Every structure is written in structure tokens, then in C-alpha cells.
User: Fold this.
Amino acid sequence: MENNQLLVIILGILLVLGVVVVAVALRARARRKPPVEQPLPPGKAEIPPPAAPEAKTPAPQPAVAPAPTPPPAAAPLTDEARVSKGLGRTKVFFQQTFDKLFTGAKAEAFFGDMEEVLLTADIGIDFTEKIVAALKSSFGMRLPGRDELKARLSDILMQQLPGNLGGSVDAHPRVVLVVGVNGAGKTTTIAKLCQRFQAQGKKVLVGAADTFRAAATEQLRTWVERVGADGVFQKEGSDPSAVAFDSVQAARSRGADVCLIDTAGRLHTKVNLMEELQKMKRVVAKAMPGAPHDVWLVVDGSTGQNALNQAREFNQHLELTGVVVTKLDGSAKGGAVLAIGAELKVPVVFIGVGESPEDLVPFNGKSFVETILEGL
Assistant:
């Protein structure tokens, strides 16, 4: 009896153990089965899982070209090159007129035609007559060849021109009174002279004695400050002679090498205005004995014969020591330079052949003549 009970207990334990083993096995199997897909709700599209980003192959980079070598800086033009460029229209005029002169030329009419050409070039009546007389003396009544005419004409022009301005005046400061009519380029010429003198290592002071023209003082002040020069400026309406006196004294006390005095533009036919310039000369002499050392007239070269008339009148009242001829690049009237020098025997000290400060160059008679005749 006891044996039967023990057997029942053992069987019961084995049964329980079997049930447990089966349950554990079923549970492990359930975990290994794939999940059952659930149907999507109506109207919902199946969204695929995001694809893994593709590895991009870098695009080949173009070869970088080496930076181009900058061209060498152009050498600055010489004064002779600037003159040749600025007198382009005058050169063309002489070349074309001489071409016509030698086309079908006859000896008996040649010199009459030559005279007309020189007058058209604004050489001036007196100077033209001297040139034609000298040519007739050289060639008689025969027709000269083109080359020999060019050589003889060059010699005549050079003989009639006065010598170039010499070295710097032996004075410290050197006082220059700058005069001229309105519109000749006087103020800008003074600014260019400032820059040229300073490039030579000289200290420059400018006196603004044009006290009548509206805003003239401020215009000059702007130019002077731009080029880094010194200046004496007083209010509009001040006595110009007093401004000139103060400018000379300031130049002496400040150790300036050059004192440029700007004056109001005036017509050469106005006697009272010319007398005012004479007064300024006397007052400047009181500020410094021997001053002004130079009186320079600025004329517009494009006005031709009128520039000669202005120079004649200013010289009569002020005894000019030099003439600055501006704006020669704007016309074919470069002959006015020759007329001024030959008739008045006053040196042309500078010529303007462009707008930049470097285009105001010292006048060289030989270079000038060779330039205007080079196309003949």
C-alpha cells in the first residue's frame, strides 16, 4: 500500500516536470517566429524603410591654373614723350598742310602758299614774314625739296626763339607772381607747379591773392591741400596786395623755397586791373627786396593768336619773365608758342600737354620744333 502511494507521487512529479518542459519549449519557439504583418488601415500607403545613404564619389576637381604673372609696370613717360603725344593735333596739321603744299607746287606760288600755312598755324604775322623772307633768301625762287625745306625751317624757328629759362633764381624763397585772364587754367597750373617743385624736394607756399572771384580761395585751398603744399588764405574781398605781402613774409618765416602768388584773372584790355597788378609788384618788393623774381603769364594755347595778344599786353605792363602755355593737347594751334617766344623774346617756361600734373612740362625749344615738324 505504501509502495503504491510512493509510485503515484513520483508519477505526479514527473508529470508536472513534463508540463513545465513542454511550456518552456513552446515559449522559446514562439520567440523565434517572425512577427505577423498587420494589414494597413484603409487609405494608408505603405512607407518603405529609409534606404541607407549611398556613399558619394567625390567629383574630380579641375586643376588650378597658376596665377598669371602681372605685366611689368609701364615706365613713366619722359617729358619729350608727353610733348610728342600732347602735340598730336599740331603735328597732323603741319603734315597735312605740307602734303597739300607740295602737291603740284610751283616755285612762283610756293612761298605765298607757305605764308598762308604759317598764318593758319597761328605763327603770327610778324614771325611769318621773317620766316618767309629767310626761306626766300636761302632758296631764291627755286622750289626747295621737302627734306631741305624741313631742315631750313627748323633752323629758322630755333634762331628766333629766346633761350630757355636758366637755373633757379638765387633767392630764398623764389617769389613767382602768376597772372592771366579768366579761363586760361591759372589755378590748376599753380597746383601742377606745386607738385613739380615738391617732386624736386622744394618746399612750396602758395598765396591766394585772388580774393574777388567767388570761391576762388576755397578752390585753390583744395588744390594746395591735395598736393600737400603750404598756403596763405584770407577771407573773400581782402586786399590782394596785402595777401601777397603776407604770403611773402610767411614764405620767408616758414623756410619755403618757392612762393607762388595766385592773382585774379583779368582781361588784358582793362587798364585799371593791370595797374592793380603793378601795385602788387611794388608791395611784394617791400616784403622782400628783389621780389617778385618772376612774373609768369598763363595763356590758353588753344586760343591761338589771342594768346599772343594777351602776352603782348601783360608784358607791356608787367615785364614778364616767362609764359606758361596750357591746353596745347586740345587743338592744332601749337604755333602760338613759337609766336610768343619769337615776337616778345619772353621765354616760354612751361607748356601744358594734358590734364595730369606730369603733363605740365618745361619748355624745350629744340624738342618742340622737332616734334611739330617730324611728320613733314
About this structure: The two ends are 160 Å apart (CA to CA).
